[in-house]
Amino acid sequence: MDTSEITKIRFIETFRRLKIVLFTSNDVKKVFPVKDNTLKHLLIRLSKFKIIQRLSRDRYIFLLAESKPHEFVIANFLISPSYISLESALSFYRIIDQFPYRITSIVNSKSSKRSVNNKLFFYSKIKKDLFKDYIKIDDFLIATKEKTIYDYIYFIYKGLRPVNTLLDMKNQLNDENIRSYLLQNSDEKLTKFINKYVKL
């Protein structure tokens, strides 16, 4: 199939019908079976006409979709696997009042950051055995409330977040479910660290 056969209108109508918003080049090939070189030219042409936008390497957004994806959905999409946690999740669960200007996620690969349309997406690495206890809400993956607090305390313990937020979360640690989760998932050193500020 030649790229000229895939008109702009056809692409728009097809992606709207299939409700595709975020996609990779392989996703396009599933819809329009074209050769790699043809696909490359198609993506360039669609970008030129502002029908799609390249977000990062082989990550695109369909700009003319009927609905825009939540920033948390974009965060999951930019790096996979990942889940929302730390400040973004603390704000989502209303554990902290302020809404952070950046979207924070957890990954089990290397830490990194992305910038998309002046929005920063930060990805913090955690040990593989701690990459767990996230749930799907709407269309995005986010840490459970208990895991969100655990993740943040873990990063405080590692010196990667300010300790004063732990004091701000002191009320949350009175919750039986949260206390139980922390005790079950913390080793002796982490438990000792938490007890230095709040008694579990």
Description:
There is one protein chain. This protein has helices spanning 8-17, 25-31, 36-48, 71-78, 86-92, 145-157, 164-168, 176-185, 188-197; strands at 22-23, 52-56, 59-62, 83-84, 102-107, 112-116, 119-125, 134-137, 140-143. By secondary structure, the chain is of the alpha+beta class. The protein has two domains: 3-62; 71-197, no CATH class. The strands form three sheets. It has a four-stranded mixed beta sheet with strand order 4-5-7-6. Strands 1-3-2 form a three-stranded antiparallel beta sheet. Helix 5 (86-92) runs antiparallel to helix 6. The longest helix has 13 residues, at 36-48. The mean pLDDT is 93.
Layout of secondary structure:
Elements: H1 8-17, E1 22-23, H2 25-31, H3 36-48, E2 52-56, E3 59-62, H4 71-78, E4 83-84, H5 86-92, E5 102-107, E6 112-116, E7 119-125, E8 134-137, E9 140-143, H6 145-157, H7 164-168, H8 176-185, H9 188-197
Helix pairs in contact: 5-6, 6-8
Question: How much is the radius of gyration in Å?
Answer: 21 Å
Write the element-wise H/E pattern from the N-terminal end onward. Answer: HEHHEEHEHEEEEEHHHH
Record field, number of beta strands: 9
Overall 3D geometry? elongated
Secondary structural class: alpha+beta
CA-CA gap between termini? 64 Å
What's the pLDDT, averaged over the residues?
A: 93
Report the helical percentage. Answer: 40-55%
Strand content: 15-25%
Number of helices in the DSSP assignment: 9
Strand order of the largest sheet: 4-5-7-6
How many structural domains in the coordinates?
2
Biggest β-sheet: count, sense, barrel?
A: 4 strands, mixed
**Which runs of at least 5 residues are low in confidence (pLDDT < 50)?**
none
